[in-house]
Write a structure and sequence with these properties.
Length: 697
């Protein structure tokens, strides 16, 4: 082959591959391609990847339908994006102009370029301050991620630092911004090949480059779907974990400056991803913490304001919901340092001016500014929340069947005693927290549950958790199952002999009476055959409090989940009687082990001899007095939300017969208006009373 032909064979271009089934994505992953999006037209659905002409020929040899790439466009020099030298100069100017900005070099690249970062705020780290990292351009062609980092650094310096109401976001944090982790590849994408992804390591076989976001030690090389062992592949993981100097620089940085929270910016697909990524169905014990920042598919944290965007929202979820990856930064930071870490995939890739742009975000300053403005609230929320991660961790029950799952504050022990009462009798057992269930804020303990039926009970003394099963569905023993609407699939059961399966239909529950329980929770195991590249198919879990006259969304399910995982939904405690349903909207959706249980953190026993009275109901002042018939001993009053969370506790002599609550919670903040349950513990009995707080503004 001539030298000119060899160069042509290595030139990259966006390529479309027809998607005949979900298996197409697996074939592409095994071949080492990152699927960055899916387009649809009259010819069907097409996966978007980046290939050389030789790789396109290899894909055709695998039996895939590959469309020829468009001819390369003539490009004018960029005006909104900067090459690496310009970025380095911008960071130096920022540090020279502001005493509270420190320019640092984390390490050096393969070609000896510095990996630059700025620290905004006090120059030295202090253990009492939250450490937060923002990093861009692991992948060279993702210019929008580097530009976003530069604009964010400018915003922190010019706007936040000078705002008395927000200046503590930098003065009371150790804030680091690293615009370009991959300086060699980034510059190469300016000078030679716009779609270059990897770094510039010579691999010894004529190929060049390692995917830096597959080179981190956590789960490195776990399989050939989440990364590739082929040096020519886009997702080549390198010869060993942490082999690349750019990744080694990040590892060394984290050893000295371990972040409490971090965001790694990429493009594209409008996603906010977090651990875990390496294995489908793996949900981190800190799922609720990740959701507090990133939101849920029902209420995402980031919206897309680009006027022609194909996706109005950034979908949040575990990384495997898109596709499994291994050796990526987010998982490594979480596993190695307990960092609450996110990967943000910027922009939808389509469309501006009705044109699909993919990795090549348009060189348009207004559009770049729109992406920055869309993502700024999330970045500031991570910066703000990093200082309080884990301060209010409370225990809860996630599931009772097919296994008992308990989430509680981290560090309570590798095992957790639990007692169960089922139709087969009482038993004591230990739940176990494996290494992947030991998160930063929460740990998850899990153990087997057997013979679950309505009336079964679970008690976890360590956290004062008690639960009673109200209803179950999905067991083979239920010949007359009370849920209806989907078919019973005998080929895909998680437990028993069948699972519910839906596609364009609705699974409906009977009515449930919630009067005798607190913290009602719907839990089910699920898997589904969707794709985040095609966000139309989805599932919805809904609740009705008016016997089916109207419905409220509890959760939205999207993406690919070939392995079973657990969804646990706390129901809003606004009614004594509810109905539930699951709607499959063109989503191939399996559900098994459905169960509804109620949890109480303190036993509640009604009394027929005495009463607990309140001064006003509803309350329109900031003082509320509880009264009872005086008796000898002590009286303890606890006030719970209808979700079962304790907001107030106080003890007095029971002979006084009265106790005041100033309508503030245990953090000394005013409680919200709404319904509460007051439980008074006397030496001989317990009294219960509903309280409605309805203060005027």
């Amino acid at each position: 082959m001539s030298s000119a032909s060899a160069v042509a064979a290595q030139q990259l271009a966006a390529t479309r591959v027809r998607v005949d089934s979900a298996g197409t994505f697996t074939v592409l992953a095994r071949a080492g391609f990152e699927v960055a999006g899916v387009t649809r037209d009259a010819g069907g659905a097409f996966a978007l990847i980046v290939t050389t002409s030789r790789q396109r020929a290899e894909l055709i040899g695998l039996g895939l339908t590959v469309l020829a790439p468009p001819p390369p466009a003539l490009r004018a020099p960029p005006t909104s994006f900067r090459d690496f030298a310009a970025i380095a100069q911008r960071l130096e100017n920022l540090a020279n102009a502001h005493a509270f900005v420190t320019l640092d070099t984390l390490g050096f690249s393969v070609e000896a370029r510095p990996i630059l970062g700025v620290k905004i705020g006090p120059a030295a780290d202090v253990a009492s301050r939250a450490n937060v990292l923002f990093v861009g351009a692991h992948h060279a062609r993702e210019w929008i991620s580097a530009e976003l980092m530069l604009r964010f650094a400018d915003y922190l310096v010019d706007s936040v630092s000078n705002d008395p109401g927000r200046s503590e976001l930098v003065s009371q944090r150790d804030v680091w911004v690293v615009p370009v982790l991959n300086p060699d590849g980034y510059q190469y994408s300016f000078d030679v090949e716009r779609l270059w992804r990897k770094n510039r390591r010579p691999n010894g076989d004529g190929s060049v480059g390692v995917d830096l976001n597959r080179n981190y030690p956590a789960f490195w090389g776990r399989d050939d779907i989440g990364s590739s062992g082929s040096a020519t592949a886009e997702t080549y993981r390198g010869p060993g974990p942490g082999s690349e100097p750019e990744v080694a620089a990040m590892i060394a940085f984290h050893a000295v400056h371990p972040p409490d929270a971090a965001v790694s910016y990429h493009s594209y697909t409008n996603l906010v991803l977090y651990p875990y990524s390496h294995q489908s169905g793996r949900v981190a014990a800190d799922q609720s913490v990740f959701e507090a920042f990133a939101g849920t598919p029902l209420a995402p944290a980031i919206r897309d304001g680009l006027t022609e965007s194909a996706r109005p929202l950034y979908h949040p979820g575990p990384g495997w919901r898109l596709y499994p990856t291994n050796g990526d930064y987010t998982e490594w930071a979480y596993r190695a340092h307990g960092t609450i870490a996110f990967t943000v995939e910027l922009t939808a890739g389509c469309c501006l001016g009705a044109e699909f742009y993919g990795f090549e975000f348009p060189d348009d300053s207004a559009s770049v500014a729109r992406v920055f403005e869309d993502n700024l609230p999330f970045a500031l929320a991570v910066l703000d929340g990093a200082a309080t991660v884990g301060r209010s961790a409370t225990a809860s029950l996630e599931s009772l069947w097919p296994s008992i799952r308990v989430v509680g504050p981290a560090g309570a022990g590798a095992t957790l005693p639990v007692s169960t009462v089922t139709s087969s009798g009482s038993a004591l057992a230990n739940l176990v927290a494996d290494s992947l269930s030991r998160g930063t804020v929460f740990w998850r303990w899990e153990g087997p549950a057997a013979d679950v039926r309505p009336g079964s009970a679970v008690a976890v003394p360590a956290f004062a958790l008690n639960a009673t099963v109200l209803g179950v569905s999905g067991q083979a023993a239920d010949s007359l199952d009370s849920w209806t609407g989907w078919r019973q699939d005998t080929s895909s059961a998680l437990v028993g002999h069948w699972a519910w399966r839906g596609f364009r239909d609705t699974l409906r529950s009977p009515a449930f009476d919630l009067r005798e329980v607190g913290a009602p929770t719907l839990t089910f195991s699920t898997r589904h055959a969707g794709s985040l590249f095609s966000p139309g198919p989805r599932g919805r879990a809904q609740i009705s409090i008016d016997d089916g006259a109207s419905w409220l969304d509890l959760a939205v399910v999207e993406g690919a989940a070939p392995a079973w995982y657990v969804i646990s939904l706390r129901l809003p405690a606004v009614s004594d009687r509810v109905r539930l349903r699951l709607i499959a909207d063109s989503l191939d959706w399996w559900v098994d082990a459905i169960h509804l249980f109620g949890e109480t953190r303190a036993p509640v026993v009604a009394s027929s001899e005495h009463q607990l009275t309140v001064s006003q109901n509803p309350v329109r002042t900031d003082q509320l007095f509880f009264a009872w018939a005086p008796v000898a001993g002590r009286a303890t009053l606890r006030v719970f939300t209808f979700a079962g969370d304790l907001v107030f506790r106080s003890s007095v002599s029971a002979e006084i017969g009265v106790l005041e609550w100033d309508l503030r919670n245990r953090q000394d903040a005013r409680v919200e208006n709404g319904a509460y349950v007051a439980v008074l513990e006397l030496p001989t009995e317990q009294l219960r009373r509903r309280v409605f707080v309805a203060r005027s503004p």
